[in-house]
Amino acid sequence: MKVVELTKILDEFVESRFIHYLTIDIEGFEYGILRELIGNGQFAKAAITFCQIDAELHNPKFPNAHESIKQLNPVRFILDFLDQPSPYIPIFNVPYLKHPHQKVSFVNIVDPECRRAFKIESYFDKK
Hints:
Elements: H1 6-14, E1 18-24, H2 30-36, H3 42-45, E2 49-57, H4 74-83, E3 88-96, E4 101-108, H5 112-117
Parallel strand pairs: 1-2
Antiparallel strand pairs: 2-4, 3-4
């Protein structure tokens, strides 16, 4: 299968590096994608912005888990994800299937257009 860089897809087909919504379920490789969106990650440096990301985080203990994630601690991953300079916060997390994988929704709370689109201020309204 041919692999195409995300930046190439966004530049040539979407014609934007600003995306309102991304959903990913790529059998364990979502951890790597998420890692690249924060701090000094490749996608963070390439100015790729997502307003909301819904990810199925696969359980590393699942019998068919890819070797690249078998030693990963999902809780530590989320804590490290939040500890890095990150515009994303998890707003929803629920076990999914019997394995259990996790369905996690992240929202970008830094980008002004994302803040407007998702009315972030309404969550912090003190009325």
